[in-house]
Specification:
The complex is a heterodimer of chains A (about 110) and B (about 120). Chain A starts with a strand and ends with a strand. By secondary structure, chain A is mostly beta strands. Chain A is globular and about 35 Å long. Helix content of chain A is about 0%, strand content about 50%. Chain A has no helices and eleven strands. With about 120 residues, chain B is mainly beta. Chain B has strands at about 5, 10, 20-25, 35-40, 45-50, 55-60, 65-70, 75-80, 90-95, 105, 110-115. In chain B, the strands form two sheets. In chain B, strands 2, 4, 5, 6, 9, 10 and 11 form a seven-stranded mixed sheet that branches. In chain B, strands 1-3-8-7 form a four-stranded antiparallel sheet, with no helix packed on it. The relative contact order of chain B is 0.32. Classes of the chains: A mainly beta (about 110), B mainly beta (about 120). The interface between A and B is medium-sized, with 25 and 23 residues.
């Protein structure tokens, strides 16, 4: 199985801050890495697919980078609606796996 | 706009079989993979299984012995059966479009299943 490790598990930030979340795969997954945002009581929402492609309708302050085993989700200028939990997910292997999540809270 | 809606009993007794249905509207299930994903209360996401519209499947090995996923193209529905449930299977169950080498781009709202006597 490919393990996905996110860090940090939580962070506190202020509106306007730049936020970076990292995701590490236990083996190379090329660029088969997706990022999701989940707000309380809601289904996850796709933000970034294929490591760096922005899903339609997602604000450009979200960006993704990386390949192989190390990936990053960056939010430039955090907005009030961005406070949520973020998950990475690999689709490289037949056993699809998610990272443990990063909760972004208001400082 | 593609929409997914999960349905099924909210309460299942231990050792029984959980049966869920996902109905897709606003688009055809043909030519896509469809997955079930679950989330225990307050915890993270776990992929359960996926099915291609043609019927080919893949299962999470940790659940494989208890799962059946199927598709009914005439009804635009995807079904999940999970047998011999325990309290550990209590979770919010989501259906989503996507699987291997892709992303989950459409999700249902989720249905909460509680396993309790």
């Amino acid at each position: 199985d490919i393990q996905m490790t996110q860090s940090p598990s939580s962070l506190s930030a202020s509106v306007g801050d730049r936020v970076t979340i990292t995701c590490r795969a236990s083996q190379s997954i090329s660029n088969y890495l997706n990022w999701y945002q989940q707000k309380p009581g809601k289904a996850p929402k796709l933000l970034i697919y294929a490591a760096s492609s922005l899903q339609s309708g997602v604000p450009s302050r979200f960006s993704g980078s990386g390949s192989g085993t190390d990936f990053t989700l960056t939010i430039t200028s955090l907005q009030p609606e961005d406070f949520a939990t973020y998950y990475c997910q690999q689709s490289y292997s037949t056993r699809l796996t998610f990272g443990g999540g990063t909760k972004v809270e208001i400082k | 706009q593609v929409q997914l809606q999960e349905s099924g009993p909210g309460l299942v007794k231990p050792s029984e079989t959980l049966s869920l249905t996902c109905t897709v509207s606003g688009g055809s299930i043909s030519s896509y993979y469809w997955s079930w994903i679950r989330q225990p209360p307050g915890k993270g996401l776990e992929w359960i299984a996926y099915v291609y519209y043609s019927g080919s499947t893949s299962y999470n090995p940790s659940l494989k012995s208890r799962i059946t996923i199927s598709v009914e193209t005439s009804k635009n529905q995807i079904s999940l059966k999970l047998g011999s449930v325990t309290a550990a299977d209590t979770a919010l169950y989501y259906c989503a479009r996507g699987a291997l080498r892709s992303s989950f781009d459409y999700w249902g709202q989720g249905t909460l299943v509680t396993v309790s006597s």
